[in-house]
Amino acid sequence: MEGTSKKVKNTLNVGMGEIVTTSSPNVLSSLGLGSCIALVLYDPVEKIAGMAHIMLPDSSMRSKSCNNTKPGKYADNAVDALINELDSKGASRKRIKAKVAGGSKMFSFEISALLSIGEQNVKKVLDLLDSHSIPLEGCDTGGSRGRSVRFNILECILEVKIIGQGIKAI
Amino acid sequence: MNNMQLDAMKELANIGTGHAANALSELIGKRVDMNVPKVDLIPLEQVGFHFGHPEDPVCAIFSSCESSLETILVFIMPLEDSEDLAEMLLKNISIPMKETEKESLRESALSEAGNIILGAFISAMGDMVNQKLPLSVPHITVDMLGAVMDIMVAIFGVESDTVFLIETALSFPENEGRLFSGRIMLVPTPGSLGKFFQVLGLR
Asked: How high is the ipTM of this complex?
Protein backbone atom coordinates (compact mmCIF):
# COMPACT_ATOMS: atom_id res chain seq x y z
CA MET A 1 0.00 0.00 0.00
CA GLU A 2 2.76 2.44 0.85
CA GLY A 3 4.54 4.32 -1.88
CA THR A 4 8.17 3.84 -0.88
CA SER A 5 10.57 4.31 -3.75
CA LYS A 6 8.06 5.38 -6.39
CA LYS A 7 8.19 9.03 -7.33
CA VAL A 8 4.72 8.99 -8.85
CA LYS A 9 2.13 10.82 -6.78
CA ASN A 10 -0.55 8.47 -5.51
CA THR A 11 -3.65 9.18 -3.50
CA LEU A 12 -4.14 6.56 -0.83
CA ASN A 13 -7.62 6.31 0.56
CA VAL A 14 -8.02 5.50 4.23
CA GLY A 15 -11.21 3.53 4.89
CA MET A 16 -13.15 3.39 8.11
CA GLY A 17 -11.03 1.99 10.92
CA GLU A 18 -7.88 1.88 8.79
CA ILE A 19 -4.45 3.40 9.24
CA VAL A 20 -2.23 4.21 6.27
CA THR A 21 1.27 5.67 6.41
CA THR A 22 3.26 6.90 3.44
CA SER A 23 5.69 9.57 2.37
CA SER A 24 5.86 12.53 0.00
CA PRO A 25 4.81 13.04 -2.78
CA ASN A 26 1.85 10.80 -1.97
CA VAL A 27 -1.47 12.12 -0.75
CA LEU A 28 -3.62 10.58 1.98
CA SER A 29 -7.40 10.93 1.80
CA SER A 30 -10.52 10.08 3.73
CA LEU A 31 -13.85 10.71 2.03
CA GLY A 32 -17.24 11.47 3.49
CA LEU A 33 -16.47 11.74 7.18
CA GLY A 34 -19.47 12.27 9.42
CA SER A 35 -18.93 11.54 13.08
CA CYS A 36 -15.66 9.84 12.17
CA ILE A 37 -12.33 11.62 12.45
CA ALA A 38 -9.35 11.84 10.16
CA LEU A 39 -6.25 12.15 12.30
CA VAL A 40 -3.03 12.99 10.49
CA LEU A 41 0.34 12.66 12.22
CA TYR A 42 3.37 13.79 10.22
CA ASP A 43 7.04 14.53 10.36
CA PRO A 44 7.44 17.75 8.34
CA VAL A 45 11.17 17.24 7.83
CA GLU A 46 11.24 13.60 6.69
CA LYS A 47 7.90 14.15 4.87
CA ILE A 48 6.41 11.01 6.31
CA ALA A 49 2.76 10.97 7.34
CA GLY A 50 0.04 8.66 8.51
CA MET A 51 -3.72 8.98 8.58
CA ALA A 52 -6.20 7.16 10.80
CA HIS A 53 -9.93 7.04 10.04
CA ILE A 54 -11.26 6.88 13.60
CA MET A 55 -14.84 5.75 14.34
CA LEU A 56 -15.09 5.63 18.10
CA PRO A 57 -13.36 7.29 21.06
CA ASP A 58 -12.24 4.49 23.32
CA SER A 59 -11.34 0.82 22.92
CA SER A 60 -12.84 0.12 26.34
CA MET A 61 -16.23 0.42 24.53
CA ARG A 62 -15.38 -2.71 22.61
CA SER A 63 -17.73 -5.58 23.21
CA LYS A 64 -16.16 -8.76 24.59
CA SER A 65 -17.40 -10.76 21.64
CA CYS A 66 -15.39 -8.60 19.24
CA ASN A 67 -11.87 -9.94 19.15
CA ASN A 68 -10.63 -8.66 15.82
CA THR A 69 -10.24 -4.93 15.76
CA LYS A 70 -8.99 -2.64 13.08
CA PRO A 71 -6.05 -0.55 14.26
CA GLY A 72 -7.62 2.82 13.49
CA LYS A 73 -11.12 2.16 14.78
CA TYR A 74 -10.67 3.55 18.28
CA ALA A 75 -8.92 6.84 18.99
CA ASP A 76 -6.69 5.47 21.76
CA ASN A 77 -5.42 2.52 19.68
CA ALA A 78 -5.08 4.68 16.58
CA VAL A 79 -2.79 7.27 18.15
CA ASP A 80 -0.40 4.61 19.50
CA ALA A 81 -0.42 2.64 16.26
CA LEU A 82 0.19 5.75 14.16
CA ILE A 83 3.13 6.84 16.31
CA ASN A 84 4.68 3.36 16.09
CA GLU A 85 4.22 3.12 12.35
CA LEU A 86 5.73 6.54 11.73
CA ASP A 87 8.58 5.65 14.03
CA SER A 88 9.35 2.46 12.11
CA LYS A 89 9.32 4.44 8.86
CA GLY A 90 12.02 6.77 10.14
CA ALA A 91 10.02 9.73 11.44
CA SER A 92 11.37 11.53 14.47
CA ARG A 93 9.08 11.25 17.46
CA LYS A 94 10.07 14.77 18.55
CA ARG A 95 9.06 16.34 15.27
CA ILE A 96 5.65 14.68 14.92
CA LYS A 97 2.78 17.13 14.52
CA ALA A 98 -0.95 16.61 14.09
CA LYS A 99 -3.90 17.83 12.05
CA VAL A 100 -7.46 16.75 12.77
CA ALA A 101 -10.80 17.00 10.92
CA GLY A 102 -14.25 15.48 11.31
CA GLY A 103 -16.40 14.65 14.31
CA SER A 104 -19.61 16.27 13.19
CA LYS A 105 -23.12 15.62 14.39
CA MET A 106 -25.07 14.61 11.29
CA PHE A 107 -28.45 14.15 12.92
CA SER A 108 -29.93 14.89 16.29
CA PHE A 109 -30.17 11.43 17.68
CA GLU A 110 -32.37 9.86 20.20
CA ILE A 111 -30.52 6.59 20.39
CA SER A 112 -28.32 7.09 23.40
CA ALA A 113 -25.39 5.03 22.13
CA LEU A 114 -24.99 7.46 19.29
CA LEU A 115 -25.52 10.65 21.20
CA SER A 116 -22.74 13.05 20.32
CA ILE A 117 -20.35 10.32 19.18
CA GLY A 118 -18.63 12.88 16.95
CA GLU A 119 -18.11 15.24 19.85
CA GLN A 120 -16.71 12.44 22.00
CA ASN A 121 -14.35 11.46 19.18
CA VAL A 122 -13.01 15.01 18.91
CA LYS A 123 -12.50 15.39 22.63
CA LYS A 124 -10.73 12.06 22.95
CA VAL A 125 -8.39 12.70 20.03
CA LEU A 126 -7.41 16.15 21.28
CA ASP A 127 -6.85 14.80 24.81
CA LEU A 128 -4.65 12.02 23.45
CA LEU A 129 -2.56 14.43 21.39
CA ASP A 130 -2.12 16.56 24.46
CA SER A 131 -1.04 13.66 26.65
CA HIS A 132 1.45 12.55 23.99
CA SER A 133 2.70 16.17 23.70
CA ILE A 134 2.01 16.24 19.98
CA PRO A 135 1.39 19.80 18.77
CA LEU A 136 -1.93 20.34 16.99
CA GLU A 137 -1.19 22.38 13.88
CA GLY A 138 -4.66 22.43 12.38
CA CYS A 139 -8.15 21.45 13.36
CA ASP A 140 -11.57 21.55 11.69
CA THR A 141 -14.08 19.65 13.76
CA GLY A 142 -17.68 19.60 14.94
CA GLY A 143 -20.66 21.20 13.24
CA SER A 144 -23.31 19.26 11.39
CA ARG A 145 -21.73 18.78 7.96
CA GLY A 146 -19.80 15.90 6.46
CA ARG A 147 -16.21 16.40 5.32
CA SER A 148 -13.73 14.96 2.87
CA VAL A 149 -10.05 15.44 3.58
CA ARG A 150 -6.82 15.17 1.62
CA PHE A 151 -3.39 15.53 3.18
CA ASN A 152 -0.61 16.75 0.94
CA ILE A 153 2.56 15.51 2.63
CA LEU A 154 4.95 17.66 0.61
CA GLU A 155 3.34 20.87 1.86
CA CYS A 156 1.87 19.40 5.05
CA ILE A 157 -1.51 20.88 4.15
CA LEU A 158 -4.83 19.27 5.00
CA GLU A 159 -7.57 20.17 2.53
CA VAL A 160 -11.06 19.96 3.98
CA LYS A 161 -14.05 19.84 1.66
CA ILE A 162 -17.62 20.45 2.83
CA ILE A 163 -20.62 20.33 0.45
CA GLY A 164 -21.78 23.85 -0.30
CA GLN A 165 -18.81 25.46 1.42
CA GLY A 166 -15.94 24.66 -0.90
CA ILE A 167 -12.46 23.63 0.17
CA LYS A 168 -10.35 25.11 2.89
CA ALA A 169 -6.74 24.37 3.71
CA ILE A 170 -5.61 23.92 7.28
CA MET B 1 -26.00 -15.64 11.82
CA ASN B 2 -27.38 -18.57 9.84
CA ASN B 3 -29.28 -18.66 6.56
CA MET B 4 -32.63 -19.14 8.21
CA GLN B 5 -32.11 -16.01 10.29
CA LEU B 6 -30.99 -14.04 7.24
CA ASP B 7 -34.03 -15.21 5.28
CA ALA B 8 -36.34 -14.25 8.13
CA MET B 9 -34.88 -10.74 8.25
CA LYS B 10 -35.23 -10.48 4.47
CA GLU B 11 -38.85 -11.55 4.67
CA LEU B 12 -39.56 -8.97 7.36
CA ALA B 13 -37.94 -6.30 5.19
CA ASN B 14 -39.84 -7.51 2.14
CA ILE B 15 -43.17 -6.94 3.84
CA GLY B 16 -42.00 -3.59 5.17
CA THR B 17 -40.91 -2.56 1.70
CA GLY B 18 -44.25 -3.46 0.17
CA HIS B 19 -46.01 -1.17 2.60
CA ALA B 20 -43.44 1.57 2.09
CA ALA B 21 -43.87 1.35 -1.69
CA ASN B 22 -47.65 1.64 -1.32
CA ALA B 23 -47.31 4.62 0.95
CA LEU B 24 -45.03 6.40 -1.51
CA SER B 25 -47.30 5.49 -4.41
CA GLU B 26 -50.33 7.01 -2.68
CA LEU B 27 -48.35 10.11 -1.84
CA ILE B 28 -47.29 10.90 -5.39
CA GLY B 29 -50.00 9.16 -7.40
CA LYS B 30 -47.57 7.03 -9.39
CA ARG B 31 -46.78 3.37 -9.60
CA VAL B 32 -43.77 2.56 -7.42
CA ASP B 33 -41.56 -0.45 -8.02
CA MET B 34 -39.62 -2.22 -5.33
CA ASN B 35 -36.82 -4.71 -5.41
CA VAL B 36 -36.20 -7.73 -3.24
CA PRO B 37 -34.45 -6.59 -0.07
CA LYS B 38 -30.81 -7.38 0.33
CA VAL B 39 -29.15 -8.27 3.57
CA ASP B 40 -25.64 -6.96 3.53
CA LEU B 41 -22.67 -7.79 5.68
CA ILE B 42 -20.17 -5.11 4.82
CA PRO B 43 -16.61 -4.82 6.13
CA LEU B 44 -16.25 -1.43 7.81
CA GLU B 45 -13.52 -0.15 5.52
CA GLN B 46 -15.77 -0.74 2.49
CA VAL B 47 -18.86 0.97 3.83
CA GLY B 48 -18.04 4.30 2.16
CA PHE B 49 -17.88 2.78 -1.32
CA HIS B 50 -20.53 0.10 -1.06
CA PHE B 51 -23.52 2.20 -2.12
CA GLY B 52 -21.78 4.62 -4.46
CA HIS B 53 -19.00 7.11 -4.00
CA PRO B 54 -18.60 8.45 -0.44
CA GLU B 55 -18.70 12.03 -1.74
CA ASP B 56 -21.96 11.63 -3.68
CA PRO B 57 -24.46 14.24 -2.50
CA VAL B 58 -27.53 12.60 -1.03
CA CYS B 59 -30.67 13.58 0.81
CA ALA B 60 -31.29 11.37 3.82
CA ILE B 61 -34.24 11.18 6.15
CA PHE B 62 -33.34 9.48 9.33
CA SER B 63 -35.47 8.03 12.06
CA SER B 64 -34.99 5.67 14.92
CA CYS B 65 -37.21 3.12 16.56
CA GLU B 66 -36.90 3.14 20.30
CA SER B 67 -38.23 -0.12 21.55
CA SER B 68 -36.86 -3.45 22.58
CA LEU B 69 -36.11 -3.84 18.87
CA GLU B 70 -33.98 -0.73 18.65
CA THR B 71 -33.35 0.12 15.04
CA ILE B 72 -32.05 2.92 12.89
CA LEU B 73 -33.87 3.60 9.66
CA VAL B 74 -32.94 5.88 6.85
CA PHE B 75 -34.54 6.76 3.55
CA ILE B 76 -31.76 7.90 1.30
CA MET B 77 -31.78 9.19 -2.28
CA PRO B 78 -29.44 10.94 -4.67
CA LEU B 79 -29.76 14.71 -4.25
CA GLU B 80 -31.23 15.25 -7.71
CA ASP B 81 -33.83 12.55 -7.15
CA SER B 82 -34.85 14.23 -3.92
CA GLU B 83 -35.36 17.46 -5.88
CA ASP B 84 -37.63 15.59 -8.31
CA LEU B 85 -39.57 14.06 -5.45
CA ALA B 86 -40.00 17.43 -3.74
CA GLU B 87 -41.25 18.86 -7.03
CA MET B 88 -43.86 16.10 -7.27
CA LEU B 89 -44.96 16.54 -3.70
CA LEU B 90 -45.43 20.27 -4.06
CA LYS B 91 -46.65 20.57 -7.64
CA ASN B 92 -50.16 21.51 -6.61
CA ILE B 93 -49.10 24.39 -4.41
CA SER B 94 -49.29 27.64 -6.29
CA ILE B 95 -48.89 30.26 -3.58
CA PRO B 96 -46.15 32.72 -4.53
CA MET B 97 -43.13 32.22 -2.29
CA LYS B 98 -39.61 33.46 -1.75
CA GLU B 99 -36.84 31.01 -2.63
CA THR B 100 -35.91 30.51 1.05
CA GLU B 101 -39.52 29.69 1.90
CA LYS B 102 -39.68 27.25 -1.00
CA GLU B 103 -36.50 25.60 0.21
CA SER B 104 -37.82 25.07 3.71
CA LEU B 105 -41.14 23.83 2.32
CA ARG B 106 -39.28 21.34 0.12
CA GLU B 107 -37.32 20.18 3.11
CA SER B 108 -40.36 19.60 5.29
CA ALA B 109 -42.23 17.88 2.44
CA LEU B 110 -39.33 15.47 1.92
CA SER B 111 -38.99 14.95 5.62
CA GLU B 112 -42.67 14.10 5.89
CA ALA B 113 -42.50 11.79 2.87
CA GLY B 114 -39.57 10.00 4.48
CA ASN B 115 -41.51 9.74 7.69
CA ILE B 116 -44.50 8.18 5.93
CA ILE B 117 -42.33 5.72 3.99
CA LEU B 118 -40.29 4.65 7.02
CA GLY B 119 -43.40 4.59 9.20
CA ALA B 120 -45.17 2.23 6.78
CA PHE B 121 -42.07 0.07 6.66
CA ILE B 122 -41.56 -0.27 10.39
CA SER B 123 -45.22 -0.69 11.32
CA ALA B 124 -45.55 -3.55 8.84
CA MET B 125 -42.55 -5.16 10.47
CA GLY B 126 -44.11 -4.54 13.87
CA ASP B 127 -47.30 -6.33 12.79
CA MET B 128 -45.25 -9.35 11.81
CA VAL B 129 -43.61 -9.63 15.18
CA ASN B 130 -46.68 -8.50 17.09
CA GLN B 131 -45.08 -5.45 18.62
CA LYS B 132 -45.62 -1.74 18.45
CA LEU B 133 -42.56 -0.24 16.83
CA PRO B 134 -42.77 3.52 17.33
CA LEU B 135 -40.75 5.86 15.15
CA SER B 136 -38.95 8.99 16.29
CA VAL B 137 -39.41 12.42 14.71
CA PRO B 138 -37.61 12.37 11.35
CA HIS B 139 -34.41 14.30 10.70
CA ILE B 140 -33.36 15.35 7.27
CA THR B 141 -29.94 16.17 5.95
CA VAL B 142 -28.30 16.82 2.61
CA ASP B 143 -24.72 15.73 2.66
CA MET B 144 -22.11 13.28 1.43
CA LEU B 145 -23.15 9.63 1.28
CA GLY B 146 -20.17 8.55 3.35
CA ALA B 147 -20.94 11.01 6.12
CA VAL B 148 -24.53 9.81 6.35
CA MET B 149 -23.45 6.18 6.40
CA ASP B 150 -20.76 6.55 8.99
CA ILE B 151 -22.98 7.58 11.82
CA MET B 152 -25.30 4.65 11.09
CA VAL B 153 -22.50 2.15 11.23
CA ALA B 154 -20.60 3.64 14.17
CA ILE B 155 -22.74 1.70 16.63
CA PHE B 156 -21.68 -1.53 14.95
CA GLY B 157 -18.04 -0.77 15.45
CA VAL B 158 -18.10 -1.89 19.07
CA GLU B 159 -19.38 -5.33 18.12
CA SER B 160 -17.43 -6.25 15.03
CA ASP B 161 -15.58 -5.07 11.96
CA THR B 162 -18.60 -5.86 9.82
CA VAL B 163 -21.87 -3.99 9.47
CA PHE B 164 -25.20 -5.73 9.15
CA LEU B 165 -27.81 -3.81 7.25
CA ILE B 166 -30.92 -4.46 5.26
CA GLU B 167 -31.29 -2.49 2.09
CA THR B 168 -34.16 -2.16 -0.28
CA ALA B 169 -34.89 0.15 -3.20
CA LEU B 170 -38.00 1.97 -4.36
CA SER B 171 -38.20 3.44 -7.82
CA PHE B 172 -40.64 4.86 -10.31
CA PRO B 173 -39.67 4.74 -13.96
CA GLU B 174 -42.44 6.94 -15.35
CA ASN B 175 -40.92 10.22 -14.30
CA GLU B 176 -40.42 11.75 -17.74
CA GLY B 177 -37.80 9.24 -18.66
CA ARG B 178 -35.73 9.72 -15.54
CA LEU B 179 -35.55 6.94 -13.02
CA PHE B 180 -36.19 7.93 -9.46
CA SER B 181 -34.63 5.71 -6.89
CA GLY B 182 -34.57 5.84 -3.14
CA ARG B 183 -33.22 3.33 -0.69
CA ILE B 184 -34.47 2.29 2.68
CA MET B 185 -31.78 1.10 5.03
CA LEU B 186 -32.45 -0.59 8.26
CA VAL B 187 -29.73 -1.05 10.84
CA PRO B 188 -30.75 -2.91 13.98
CA THR B 189 -28.49 -1.99 16.89
CA PRO B 190 -26.24 -4.93 17.74
CA GLY B 191 -28.18 -5.71 20.91
CA SER B 192 -31.53 -5.80 19.18
CA LEU B 193 -30.56 -8.18 16.39
CA GLY B 194 -30.71 -11.14 18.76
CA LYS B 195 -34.11 -9.98 19.96
CA PHE B 196 -35.40 -9.91 16.39
CA PHE B 197 -34.47 -13.57 16.04
CA GLN B 198 -36.01 -14.31 19.41
CA VAL B 199 -39.42 -12.85 18.51
CA LEU B 200 -39.25 -14.66 15.19
CA GLY B 201 -38.70 -17.87 17.09
CA LEU B 202 -35.29 -18.44 15.59
CA ARG B 203 -33.25 -18.63 18.72
From this structure: 0.84
